[in-house]
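Figure-free illustration: sequence to structure, shown twice.
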Amino acid sequence: MFTKWIYRYEQTLTLVAFIAIVAGILIRIFLKDIAVIGDALLIFATAIAMLPIGLRAIQALRFKMFSIELLISIAVIGALFIGEFIEAAVVTFLFLFGSYLEKKTLERTRRSIQSLTELSPEEALIKQADGSRTLVSIEEVSRGDRIILTAGSRVPVDGHIIEGEGTFNEASITGESVPLTKCQQDTLYSSTILESGYVEMIADKIGEDTAFAKIIDLIEEAQETKSNTERFLDRFAKWYTPAVIVLAAIVGLITWNLHLAITFLVIACPGALIIGAPVSSVAGIGNGAKHGALIKGSDIMETLAHIDVMVFDKTGTLTKGQPELLRVQTYNNPPHDLLGLIGTLEQTSEHHLAHAITSYAEQHHVLTDYVVESTTPIKGKGIAGQVDHQQLIVGNRALMQDHHIDISQAEQDALYEEQTGHTLVFAAINGKLAAVLSIKDEVREDAKQAIDLMKQHGVKRTIMLTGDNAHTARVIAEQLDIDEVEAGLLPEDKTAYVKQLQNQGYHVAMAGDGINDAPAIATADIGLAMGDGGTDISMETADIVLMADRLKQYAHAFLLAKATHRNIKQNIWIAMLTVFALLIGVLLGGVNLAIGMFIHEASVLVVIFNAMRLIKFKIKGEDLNETTQTTIRNPDMPYLYQEN
């Protein structure tokens, strides 16, 4: 009970100590006849200020830890013993006041993270079955509830629109402040804001299952992790503090100067050294979260700063992951319902190219009531199956070769399509080539600028790994100035390639969509996933998640990691140089106990303020918010369905 009271009123105790110190010093200077009262006030101030300091020292000793508070306690007791009442009182006050300032400034470093948690919605407007509206707390929302959103409303849970249209600000999720227009069937995320319009949505994910809740959990977990530097400093401090006590005792025994010994204790306090790395890491992680890059810990931040090889998947990472079917070239007199048959089979696949084919088939109403009699997905190659008594094989060249399908008659057309940067899907019916489907996926607008920036800041090699054909991959690589291309790879091939790079001594980062590339992402030193608003697989697999699917966030995270690493080094040097300078000052007789304490606390604040610069970190020299469109060199060809 007493301990809680002390900590609760610590600021009040600090103020009382300050008043007593000022009164005591004034009495000693101007009322020397009653100087004893001044001394009593100084001793009282020391005792008051020592309450929280001494309690922390005792609590640390219970866990066999030598804390900074223990050093201060020993020094203050020594100062009182030799009659240095002013120095004893001033040291305790400065320590408490410095701790108060540290707490307040550290709160600012965490404010960018705390501001995110404050965006969490608290209420939802539910539309009942009879049409009435009920305002309920967020805890009362259930899956399947129909929720009404009006202009200015904050989306309470994750779900999808079933009625209406509106413009949404998704900055809390993606870091992007540009509003997005959404309509029926579009996904909505908790904490985002409906800026204009009227929308009714169905709740799909609630509570801790929402993307926003997962983001907050990730950030909170990230703050608790420690980098190698932080762990080293913790181990160092564990031995450093008792070593200081021993050295101070040796100084006292050699010089028989107790004042010098206790001054040594104060100036050697490792406060700035211990706090320098964690405060920089917290500020860096907060900045990343604010810009839509979730970095899952200080250890990941430290590793990212040393990355020298960037590996990228193509589809969904360097490209937008929204492929469109542009052209179908037919061969060998295929059935008139060819696209319907292919589209029906592809409906059983989750591959992004399958989605492009089925979307086109749906738009042109060629899907009818075909019966899928069998289906066999073939990893990294395509799909085979029987639809309406027709045997279909749909996939890449390798799949055609595996099934001995002759595609020689399509080689010239295929080469032309690939040289324009298109991805090809071959389709065979009953053992004969029936069609070649040309699919385009646009390059991300900010990809080249992001890659160029990372290459300018320490990335030695950029590599594209893709399951696509070599011609298409090279076209994309040339547009983005990517150094190397490996095409026609299966997921296990990508993993093996990443391991090969690591065995060569490189520090490798792998960026992918978090699904097909999950093994390679998990293998790399740093795994990065395009978050797509926070999909489960990307959050679980990767070390870094880009919430807006923008590569500019990757560049920001990489440069932020380097800035954070530099900042930690700066803080360590500030702390070490301060202690070194104070030691010289003590040996030369120019630093007493109070001055040493003042400079020590000042160095801690300098370290914190230096780390706080990371809160406002942004990429210099390049404005990635204004990206130029990167397009395929050849103009898009209109859809053609023609016989060869």
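We now fold a second protein in the same way, so the two outputs can be compared directly.
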Amino acid sequence: MIDSAPGATAPWWAAGGLFAMWAVREIWGVLKTRKKDRTETDANIDLLNQLREGLASMGERLKITEEGHQQLRKRLEEEITLRMQTQEEAHRLRMRVQTLESAMRKVGAVIPPEAP
């Protein structure tokens, strides 16, 4: 095989060169793929970090909003309570006035009608 017929086989250095070129090409491809994968991984890590920061800031905003809603709810409840107390007192006063007017009419007093 080595020297049986001239030109029948490729010289050994050509086969070695082809193998070396193939090996370099494969190694280069692996390195490029690794670099690409690493770049994608770094981008994914950055994206995850940004998502975490976004969630943290959203959590803080949500907490602040909830606190604001609690304060507003307290104020509204206080206002409702005060209005109810005021309405009850106004009703009691109206009833007292009606009772007094009725008593005065029984005695003969003339009371003008209430203006609307």
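Summary for the second example: The radius of gyration is 47 Å.
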